[in-house]
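During the reporting period the student researcher (J.K.) took over the structure-prediction task from the postdoctoral fellow and processed the backlog of single-chain submissions. One of the processed entries is reproduced below for the supervisory committee.
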Amino acid sequence: MSNSVLGNIRVVLSHTSHPGNIGAAARAMKTMGLSNLFLVNPKLFPDAMADAMAAGADDLLANAIVCNSLEQALQGAVLVVGLTARQRGLSHTMLNLREAAPQILARAGDAPVAVLFGTEMSGLSNAELEKCQLLITIPVNPEFSSLNLAAAVQVVAYELRVLAIAAGPVSKDIPLASFEDVERFYEHLERTLIEINFLDPLHPKRLMTRFRRLYARAQLEQEEVNILRGFLKWSGRGRIPKDNS
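J.K. obtained the following C-alpha cells:
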C-alpha cells in the first residue's frame, strides 16, 4: 500500500540553482521510496555534480521530467502542496508537515499530488505560492532556520513514508479537480468578473488572490468545477440558471 501511495507523490523542484542539490534530493527521495522527480527550469541539468550527489539514485535523475513552466510540472495533480518557511500575506492554509501528511497521503491514494520546493536562495515566489492549495512548513529551530533543499526533501519524504507504512488502506474519495482544470476555472472567473465590472483589470488589488485562497480551502471536486464554470457561463450572459435540483 505504501509503495502505491508514494508512487502518486510528485516532488517538484523549481528553478534549482545548484545541480548537486538535485542529485542529493534524488537520493533523499529514493531512500524513502519516492520516485517522481520534476524539475522546473533548473540552472544546470543534467550535470556531473548531480550524478555524483545522487549516489545510486541515478535512475531518478535519468527519469526526471524537466519542465519549461510550473504549470507543466503540476499538470494532472489534484493537490499542490508548497513548502515555505514563513507565513505570507493572504496565504493559503498553512500546516506543519506532520499535520499535513495525512491530507497529502489521502489525496495521493488514487491521483497525483505535487509537493513543490522553491529555489535555494529565496524559496517559493508569491506567484508560485498562489498555485498551491496547501502550504506546509517544517518546524525548525527559529534561531537557525536555514535548511538545505535536499535536507528539506529528505524530511518531507521521511514523514510521508512513515505515515504511509503505518496507515491502513486509503479510502477512495470523490475525484478532485486537476490542477489545470482549476486554473482554467480561475481564468474563466477572472474574465467573467471583468465582464460584469466587478473586477477592474487596471486596479485588481488582490481580489483574485482572495478567490484562490477561498477555493483552495474547498479543495474543489471535478463536478464542482464543472458546476461553477457552468454558472459563470450563464452569469456572463446576464442570466442566472434555474435550480433543477
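The committee noted the following: The CA atoms of residues 18 and 95 lie 28 Å apart.
J.K. will present the remaining backlog at the next meeting.
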